Predict the structure of Probable dual-specificity RNA methyltransferase RlmN.
Amino acid sequence: MPLTSYTSEKPLIYSLTPDEMKEWLVEIGDKAFRAQQIFDWLYVKRVRSFEEMTNLSKDLRQKLSETFRIEAMEEITHQTSQDGTVKFLFKLVDGHAIETVIMRHSYGNSICVTTQVGCRIGCTFCASTLGGLKRNLDAGEIVAQVLMAQRKLDEEGARVSHVVVMGIGEPFENFENLIAFLRIINDNRGLNIGARHITVSTSGIVPKIYEFAERGGQVNLAISLHAPNTELRTKLMPINRGFPLEKLLEACRYYIAKTGRRISFEYGLFGGTNDQPEHAEELADLIGDMLCHVNLIPVNYVPERDYVRTPRNEIFQFKNILEDRGINVTIRREQGSDIAAACGQLRAQYAKETVG
């Protein structure tokens, strides 16, 4: 059973993978098959207490209650955009706040989850890093975000179809909890979210890209690239000093060769910084030989940052250059622009209000 990242006498029940649940049941002298029943109560019926698990014995329910927590977080607030995007601010048991987002697409409902309280990567365009890193989330705290979003969708008879690990934090700095989270939400006895419907985004922790190639299964990998050369990337993303672009691309090529899976490169467009035609040509030279896809992201304005939005015609000019060079490219549809939709903004507002 994994240790929680928050010190607590009771770990979250949602942190247990199916195998870990079976091991715990056997340890207490119960039957391993009960794990499937517990998973059904947690993730299919989505109960909020162990007492509601009525096909379990009173003794087992008591042991579950004595050993585990079932309430992971409480909703502080949520904002709903005109386009249907819902952004939640949740309070964890130690008082820290995190964000989770429901995004509506033609192919279903995608949930963006957070893996850390804050972030230490220091990307110069991101609101998440403004307060630094407080702690990792444990696997159950990440799982619970999907569960809380699903309960919201239950009100309209909808379900979570896709998960993107692109919220606050660097997922690969919380690697073991990330892997446990992926196993739990992918399990067909629970939330049953297909591996190919899950995408993990990293800023470029090179050793973990190699490890993810071995352990990530069919889960999609996205790389926050944002620059076509190492000098510019270092200015935008200080992590490039530790894991230079050349080493990052070597790891990406290994991942593609090992898994046969396409990599997505996330490329935020910052007006006058990385969005000129010469940047597009340089990007095409850099990744043109790879099995990849480029997701162009028009920047969300963050008050604490100085970056401005690339004009619409220049966004399409950038896209056209890449396509002419044979690169698969899309422009991310803007969602939640009328709420605090940029990653970390709602949490930053809450922090100001509670401190001030």
Notes: Residues 13-67 form a domain with the DNA polymerase; domain 1 fold (CATH 1.10.150.530). Residues 269 and 336 are 18 Å apart (CA to CA). The longest strand covers residues 97-105. The mean pLDDT is 91.
